[in-house]
Amino acid sequence: MNDDPERPHLTPWLAALYVAPRYRGRGHATRLSKRLLQEAARLNCPAVYLATHIPDFYKRFGAELHEDLAEDFCVMRIATSAVA
């Protein structure tokens, strides 16, 4: 439900999405993210939160900055209503 003990109110949380380097560039992370967001929408979750150092990747899904944590690390929010 949450991957950040300092922000327990931000839930559900997209966490531990990792694609091994040799499999990158094939759309796996995009498909996994879309499927997770579809399931969150089906479960009536209004948004999903995540922490990342690659915000541009998640902006593809409508992610918006929720909180800057460091120069290259932030918390983002994705509204599930925007998920197709």
Supply the key terms.
24% helix; single chain; 3-stranded antiparallel β-sheet; 2 helices; 84 residues; alpha+beta
Any idea what the radius of gyration is?
12 Å
Detail the poorly predicted runs: none
Helix share, percent = 10-25%
How many structural domains can be distinguished in the coordinates? Answer: 1
Distance between the termini: 22 Å
Q: Would you tell me the overall average pLDDT? A: 92
Number of helices: 2
Brief account:
This protein is an alpha+beta fold. The chain is built from two helices and three strands; from the N terminus they run H-E-H-E-E. The chain starts with 27 loop residues before the first helix and ends in a 5-residue tail after the last strand.
Would you give an account of this structure?
The structure is a single chain. By secondary structure, this protein is of the alpha+beta class. The chain has one domain (21-82). The protein is 24% helix and 24% strand. Strands 1-3-2 form a three-stranded antiparallel β-sheet. Strand 2 (64-70) and strand 3 form a beta hairpin. The longest helix has 15 residues, at 28-42. The radius of gyration is 12 Å and the shape is globular. 17% of the residues are buried.
Strand and helix layout:
Blueprint: H1 28-42, E1 47-52, H2 55-59, E2 64-70, E3 73-79
Antiparallel strand pairs: 1-3, 2-3
